[in-house]
Amino acid sequence: MRIAVDVGGTFTDVVVLDEISGALHFDKVETIPSDPCAGVINGIEKTGFDLSGVDIFVHGTTLGLNALLTRSGAELAIITTRGFRDVYLLGRTDREPLYNLKYRKPEPLVPRYRIFEVTERMNYKGEVLVEFDREEAALLGERLKQQGVRSVAVCLLHSYINPAHELALAGTLADVYPGLSITLSHRLTREYREYERTSTAVIDAYIKPLTRTYLEKLDNELNSREFEGSFLLTRSGGGAITVNAAKDEPAHLILSGPAGGVIGATAFGALINEPNLVTIDMGGTSLDASLIVAGEPGVETQQRFEGLPIAIPTLDIHTIGAGGGSIAWVDDGGHLQVGPQSAGAVPGPACYAKGGKDATFTDAALVMGYLDPENFLGGEVALNKDLAHQAVSETAGAVKLSVEETAAGIMRISEAKIAGAVRVISIERGHHPKDFALLAFGGGGAFVATSVARELGIPRVVIPPAPATFSALGMMMVDVTHDLSQTCVMDLEQFEVESINAIFAELGGRGHAALEKDQVDPARRRLIPMAELRYQGQEHTVNLVLPTTALGSGDQEKIESLFNAAHEKQYGHAMQDPIQIVTLRLRAVGLLGRPDLPNLDEDTAAPASNGSRQIYRSGTGGREPYFIYDRDVLRAGMQIRGPAIIEEPTSTTVIHRNDNLVTGRYGELLVSIS
Amino acid sequence: MDMETKTYTYVAGKNLDVDGSAADPVTTQLVRNSLNSIANQMRNTLTRASFSPIVYEANDFCVALYDHNICLLSQAPTLPVFLGTMNFCIEAAVEGVGGVEALEPGDILLYNMPYGTGSHAQDAAVVMPVFMEDGELAGYACNKAHWYDIGAKNPYCTDTEDLFQEGVIFPGVKIYKRGEKNDDIFRMVEANTRTPDYVLGDLHAQSASARAGADALVKLIHRFGRDTFRMCVQRMFDHGEAMVRDFFAKLPDGIYTATSTMDNDGLTDETIDFEITVEIEGSTIRIDYSKVPDAVAGPMNCPFPSTVSGSRVAIGMMLGEGGSPAEGHFRPLEVVTRTGSMFHPVAPQPCYLYGWPLMHAMEAIYEAFSKAAADLVPSGSAGDICAVQAYGYHSETGEFFFNGYALPVGHGASADADGATLYVPALAKSTLPSAEIQEAKFPFVFRKWNLAPDSCGPGKYRGGLGVDYEWQVMHDARLISTVENTKTPAWAQQGGLSGTCNGFTIEYPDGRIEKRNKVTGLPVPDGTIIKIHCGGGGGYGLPSERDPEAVRRDLEEGYISEQHARQYYPHVFG
Prior knowledge:
Low-confidence stretches of chain A: none
Oligomer: heterodimer
Helix content of chain B: 25-40%
Number of domains of chain A: 5
Structural class of chain A: alpha+beta
Radius of gyration of chain A: 26 Å
Number of helices of chain A: 16
Strand content of chain B: 15-25%
Distance between the termini of chain A: 42 Å
Strand content of chain A: 25-35%
Low-confidence stretches of chain B: none
Distance between the termini of chain B: 62 Å
Shape of chain B: globular
Strand order of the largest sheet of chain B: 3-2-6-5-4-7-8
Number of strands of chain B: 23
Radius of gyration of chain B: 24 Å
Largest sheet of chain A: 9 strands, mixed
Shape of chain A: globular
């Protein structure tokens, strides 16, 4: 049996899969922000399943990201090479946004008085220029102890090529200050760029104490309930890590929460034969968009969170403030805007009648007629149409439009913002939406999916079963994953095959050791070697997957032509210039096996409708009937022609005139956009 | 040089002959967002395919999209001072090839005449006219990027005496004609640079970027229809203009003056003063450069398009709304110059260091505005990018190496906050490169990368800290330094004091120490240490009014020494 638990801002979702019967069980409890561990245990207990029979428990947490957002992590120190104290505070010094004379950088996680220098220096070849000063380091350790600093991030210059001084420093610190939590930059990334490596180590050290406390508590709770299976966490770079690895390197948990949806989308795409997917995960306050190309989710190695870079492979998830609770407002120039401010769960949209006065996306959808006030969240929340109307009419007064036109405008602007987020990760990076299907989930994803697809020219929309809990379902699809890398700048012309193979052998050894620690059977391990290449002089690289066997001297030409083809595809042109290898990467995977999802019975009869609702049509002043269907009654093969609304307890799918919906074998809704 | 000078007033923003108020506000938002997204796509195409760190790291380029009247539709956040020059680049490039009638679908133009681009010859503009299928001209997709080397007398120059020492000129030529590559021009480019791989790679990237923008613009116009598109664009311009006018209408009318002092003209070491005025009249802003000296003998002259651009950027940054401006934002601005002056040089007056008088001018604009309202702008920055570059031919490989980059400086305090350490507004999108990457690529070792204690201008709110950089050349090399403002510190307001001046010191292996400002091609032996001090920002308000707690925090953080604290903030020590 497998259990997955996804802790969101409002709800904690639990999915249980009985692999023998193939049955899926979904549950939902309220998140307890002050004690998320209790929320997780409540969720598991609500399902009624016995933990002793569970082989794999997968968990996604936003604890680390929240600590960054609210600046509530550990007090920590940085130790760096003498002369480079302010690498972390200076950063790259670029402005975002550009046009603001009073711009200030994001608040650093470490004050300057906690940044220390130690005498030592390597050069870029890893040769020692200045010896490491052990006595000075011991004094530093004493000082940290006196000041009660619990966590330290160490980043020494060129440690990516020779970590000897970082290791020596860690040894000295551990001697004089046992119990100090130490993060070494080279353990997280073996790549050059001292500011990004420092920032990565700082983020790790910042969230380590609280992540450890949380994971230890949860681990104990599980064990006390006779859980004997593997405890895994979804990982920022895709896949999962064991709870012990997560305690050591919590930097890999930054995107643990939203990763579940992307992992699930990748696996679900493979099941339904949609290798190219745009995914949108829309909740109450924000929306996550990502791209899956040829069955692989996009991964970035230079992501930023809250303006702070993290230089480990991280799923390329673009988040914007657009959700059901996003608030409509009018700017100084009289233009209508929506978000990023959100009414959240409290007070929530005006129509929740919990004291919210601002018009939100959900209020606009209610005014338009899309939502059934009596049947929202399975009837758990009764929506107040009058309050929604009142809130939208105040905005309408300010923009001088009718209430219905304003509601239509709020929806259109929200959908345009979502389309804009998708554009950032697709068109602006050289991918055409017409080559993709849109997979939409989260509470609100299905609602906006067809409009967003139409705006971008995406031909098909896929709504998976139970979209509101899809992220938790996605966590069922993980493999244990480790990413290893080594900067190795080498001209392809000088293809030194022995030294490349030696680095891959070293990375392979580390990969096997990590999987051994995770107790993955050797037969279930896969090592995937990759190389990042560029034309000499370029900075941006292209990542190539290499053959898994040792390279031979004849592979040089093959790599060259693979690179040229990949560059052509990604950037629109190839060149005659010399090619350079920059970084060698190895992904070490422990396969857990994909669970089978239950199939839906087939029936091609016309589904029965629950009648219709009148939806306002923008620009006409009139309304148009949309037929209403219960998703429960749909069977594989059934078709619905738009305009129609498909309702289920936690989600609503809207299809417009001439859109055509077919139900797939797993119960997914496949909509062709007219 | 004898020439007839005249005063010249420039006002932006032709109107489309359509009524913007008829456009639907929501559709206008969609059009605006889509136009900005196209600009981002153009930027990404350029940076990803680019070959030189000056483009992909330092962001020394810009991309923009214009309509058929050469009005700015959208731009991606890139080098600010380039962004306001692109309309001039398009006009000049199109005129160079024979006017609008000579343009055909698939053409791509190259242009780098400084008096038309506003820049030095190294900044090359690429312009692609955008045609609809029926042949109607829809607009222009364009960009301007700093080329690594364009065959000037040195890879970078601080001592040129006329245009012809500053590099090869492409006065508006078609590098693509009806989609066909013009190999002759590419061969000329290749033959006229010390770094052909970088430059050809970047020129390809620039062409790809313009093409991406042109294709996307045609699709966008189709999606909304030509009439709706134009109405929305007009409404977008009107909206931008209204926002800017609202901002300035709230300021008191008047004429505000400020002067600035340049270290020298690059040839001698005499300081040069100039005065500009800012006039606020209702919601219109007039920036008058007509009283500045005649063009100087050295390269410290700023061509007219950059004079306009610097004025635009100064105002855009002041508004602080974050978003990228379009043509409408520029309409309330009038720029007055005098031909033949240092802010409107004419051929063949030298202008290699055009960016330096421009940085001075932007500081002076802010200083003038500070006299209109006390909380309008922060005090001055150290006003430079403190760039020192080194080059040579490597003795082992024979390869040409050339490296150096812009550095951040201390910025001024404002009415409610201490100053920051950032790039000057003119180069606000630059980024500090990695020491590890520089060392792996070039024969340098960095020794210091630290904020400079006590460099900040004292005040109720203190200026931002300057920075101390030190590096050692590990090979015989030649130096180029453009370090400016070594004689005049940042301006301050309301009783605040200035920060430290910028500085550039050379320590030779034989123990000799030299303080310099601008140098070109100065030979230094292996082992020479370069010390750069990026100055501090100006303070705001009387130091005696500074919160003692803030002084104590600065002491704890090591931003100031106890001596500095006792000198400027004695009230803290009771």
